[in-house]
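Issue 218. Parser rejects a valid record. Input:
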Amino acid sequence: MSDSGRVESSAVLVEATRERIMPPARRAALAAVRTSPGGYLALAAVFTFASLILVRTGHDLAAVICVVGTWILIPILIATDRISFDGEMLVRRGLVALWSQLVKGRQIRLRINDIERAETTAVRTVRRGGSVRYRYRTEVAGKGASFAFASGRGFRQLVRLTFASLADEKLDARSRELRDYLTEPKALRQTLSLLHIASSRVLDDSVEAAPGAGKRIRHQRAAGSAQVSAADIERAGLLRIAGNQLRVAGRLRESGEAFRRALFATPNDIGLLYDFSRLLRSQASAMGQAKLLSRARAALRLAAFREKRKAPADSSDSLLARMGETFLEFGDATRAERVFRQALEFNPRTYRAQLGLADVALREGKLAHVIHHYNDAARIASDESLVRFARRESDYYSRLNDDEEYLAGELRRISWLQSSQRIQRLAARTSFASILIALVGPSISPVVGTMALAVATSSVIAWAGSLLTVQVLRPRRRFPPEEL
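Output the parser choked on:
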């Protein structure tokens, strides 16, 4: 080997050694959000209740130390515990992350290429008229690590940047909607002003003043025979985007008005029908109206029917797969299976359709079919992380199918997990009610206060125990090392 070749080889070895020994340079965070404070608040509630018990038993100094220490330390932990994104990876920072790094010797992080799935759930926190306030909770997982973060300051920026770097196959329907339609309130107000969409209060007044307006509009649309112009199509597209942005923001009444105008201009737009069905489902869930839910199913069936009638070259297999997932959310597994298979007929490499068929087979108890669909998903996956996820699921259900002892153990774990979750909910309600009675009970009768405090103590212990049990039972049982 020449001298120049030896020098180049030595430089490569030195660089590799430096990368192995020295940690990578810290990149500037593009977005950051605080982690969900639920666990911290639960811990604070337990210690606060413990301080109340100490006061009742005469240990005043210990009670003061407990309550002061709790409400000084917990807010600090909440304020410093953050998840940041630097363009390449998600990193957890703060005191808890620092402690974990000291114990485990590695940082809590997840590279964007290693993410296997992103799932989002929505919880209604406030309902007022035609609007609701959604609190979104997103979980991103891959390669044995997971990050969970909820709505708050920085959530929009983090979701927009992170999900934009992920393939559609890794996002569930709600995560995909957050990526495409979650926007700032100021920008949303400007969009509504340009499209001349009235506020929710004005829309409510107009509906009450003209209850037959919807029928007149449908009659005019049926009677009209004018062709749709390019300007109408463009405006309908803008209204569709605005309707989805309003739905994600929880302004359901205004979202319905935007979709009404868009459907008036382009009633045969299949994607618009699909989005409209999801709006109707959100309205049915928020208002508790079964009639709206039946309309949502009808709109989704119409969209799927029209999409399946299109030529394979013009059809969208990804849209059909999303329709199948929405049918599963409605609980219609039979129709979902038909839609998933239609998507695979149009494009045999539709990854989400294979996952959907595996979910349908699992609901029917057909483990062999579940394994088959996950193997097919691993075969057609376009990303290493997707392959890893599908193979892990296939191995898990293969073990369930082949090993009766492992199957029995997993069934016991799931049964205990469900029982622990029920105990946790019951204990939480009992704790809240008994603490209230314990606070006002002594003014009524000392006996009532004492009994309420005893019930509260027992229920808080049961709640904390069930919470820990749920965390222990949630992960799947690992395979024996010799069989991995």
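Fixed in the parser; the record now loads. Residues 31-163 form one domain.
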